[in-house]
# Entry
Amino acid sequence: MSDSSLRLVWVYPDLLSTYGDQGNALVVERRARQRGLDVQRVDVRSDQPIPTSGDIYLIGGGEDRPQRLAAERLRRDGGLNRAAENGAIIFSVCAGYQILGHEFINDLGEREPGLGLIDVISTRGEGARCVGDVLADIDPRLGLPQLTGFENHQGVTHLGPTARPFARTVFGNGNGTGDGTEGAYNETVFGTYMHGPVMARNPQIADLLLKLALDVNALPPTDDRWYEALRDERIAAASQPA
Amino acid sequence: MAGHPGNPEPLSPRAKLAVTAGKAAAAVSRAAGRGSGSVIGGRVALKLDPDLLGRLAQHLDVVLVSATNGKTTTTRLIAEALGAAGPVVSNALGANMPAGITSALAGGSDARFGVIEVDEKYLAGVARDVTPKAIALLNLSRDQLDRAAETRMLAEKWREGLSGSKAVVVANADDPLVVWAASSSPNVVWVAAGQEWKDDAWSCPACGGVMQRPGDDWFCGECGFRRPAPSWVLSGDHVLDPHGSAWPIHLQLPGRANKANAASSAAVAAVFGVPPQVALERMYQVQAVAGRYDTVTFLEREIRLLLAKNPAGWLETFSLIDPPPTPVILSVNARGADGTDTSWLWDVDYTRLAGHPISVIGDRRLDLAVRLEVAGLDFRVCETLDEAVQLAPPGRIELIANYTAFQDVRRRVGN
# Structure
C-alpha cells in the first residue's frame, strides 16, 4: 500500500459498468472510510492509462461488444498487468472476470485474448442463459460466509490448475461448467459471476480485499445490520427458487 | 370512419369480425376483474386477423412514440396537441405491444389521428405494420437488465427497422444512441431535448470509440460521429422552433423531462400541421398520466406519486421533487414487470436526497436500505406504505416507486 492513502481503481466504467458495478467501488470505499482509512478512488475511462500504483482494482460486468473493446484497450495499455506484477489486489465480475483469464468468446464469436492474470478460459454456453439468484459456499480458506449474488451470463468459465474455485454453488450456475464451481482466485486476483452488486450482498468480500491490500488480519467491526438483513432475505430467496 | 375524408375503404368482414371478437374478449376479461381487457381483446383480434393492426391504421394519420422513459406521457401530450386538428385515438393506458395497440385502435373508428406508444422492442415491427407519418424517438437507456436486449442492440434494431421508413422521424439530438438509431432514416427532425443520464452512451455506437462530451455537445473522437444540428431546441421554459421563435411551455406536469417531452411533442405536432403555440397551449390540459404525477390525499398527507423505473428515470425524478425537508418515500419491487435484477439501484445517485427524511418500502426495501447506508444517508425501513406515511408530518410527501411498486401504491391510496 502507498504511504498516505488507499488507492482504489475502478477500471473502465464507460465500458464495464452495466450491472450497478459502481456499487462494488462504493462499498469498498465506504467500508475503508468507516475504518478511518483515507481512500483515493480513481475511475479510469478506457481512453486513459491504467495507473500502476493502485492498491485495489475493480473491474465490472458489461455487454459483449464493450467487453471486447475493454480487452483490446487493456491489452494495449498493459497497466493492469503491471499493477498485478506489483502485487495489487484485483477483483473482477462477469465480463471483467472473463477478460482477466486467458481468453473468452467475443461479440463476433471469435476467441479474444484476455490478460492472463488468472488461469481460466471462458467459452460460450450452449444452453439457456444463466439468470437468477445464486447461493454458494466460498472456499473455506478465505474464511468468508456464504456467497449470495445475482447471475446473468451466457459464458462458461473453465479453471486451469493454478486457479482455485472461489466458491461452490448451492443454488444457481456460477461458472456454468456443471461442476458446481463459481468464480476463481489466486493469491491476488479474484473473479466471480456474481452481480447484485456482489459487495452489497457480501460486504465481507470488500473487507477481505482491504485486509489483503493493507496486509492485516483483522479490521475494526462495522454496523452491518442492513447488509445482514439483505443477506438473510436473498439467501432465503435463492433457497426457494420461483 | 364517418367524417374522415382520407378514408379509402371500410374494414373487411373478417377485420370487422376480429374487432368484434376482440371487444367481446375484452368485456369478458373486464367482467372477470382482470384489468381493462385491452391486451386480451387485442390478442384475440390479432389471432383472427393478423393484418388487423395495419388495416385499422390504414385510415389514420399515425405517429409512433418510443423511448425508455417518457413514452406514455409524451403520447398523451401529442394526443392532446393533435386534438386541435381532429379526433384522436391513442393507447393512452400504456398497453404498448401489438395486441394492446390493436385493441386501442379498434376502439377509435371515428378518429383521424392515431397516437401510439410502442414498446422499444416492438418499434420496428409496428412501424412496418402501420406505415406511420411520424415516429418520435425520445431516449434509450438501460432498463430491466435481466431480460432486455442490450441498449446498443436496441438502437441497432431501431436503425435497421427505420432505414426504409418514409415516416418523419422526430429524434432527440442529445442522446447519441437515439441519433445513431435515427440517422439511417432519410427524413429526420432533430430536437435538442436534453438527456441527463449519460452512462449508456460513453462508447460510440458507430465505432466503439470513446465519446467526448464538452458541455451540451458530444462527438466521437475517433470516427466523427457527432451531435446533429437541431431544428427544435428546448431552452429552459421555452421551445425554439425551426424559425427561431420561442414558445413558452406551460405544463401542469413537473420537471425538466416533461419539458423535453413537450418540446418533442411540439415538433411532432408541426409535422401534422398543428402550430407550436396551439400544441403547447393544449398540452397544459394534461394533469396526470395513468396516475403519474398525481397528488393524492392519504392519511391526511398530500402524496405526489412519481414513477421511476430505471436509473435515467430516477435521475430526472430527483431533479423535480420539492427540496428538503419534504419527506421522501421510496418503493422498489423486482417482480417480472420490473426486471428481477436490482443492481441498477447502484447506478442511481441517492446522495441527491441528502437532507430529506427518507423512508423505504416495497418488496426490495432491504436492497434500498443497503444502498442508502452505503450512500451515507439516514433512512427508515417500513413494512407498509401506511407506516411510512405516518412517520411524516402532515403535509406534502414525494413518493418515488418503480413499476409494480407504483401500482401497489396506487391501489392502496385508491388512485
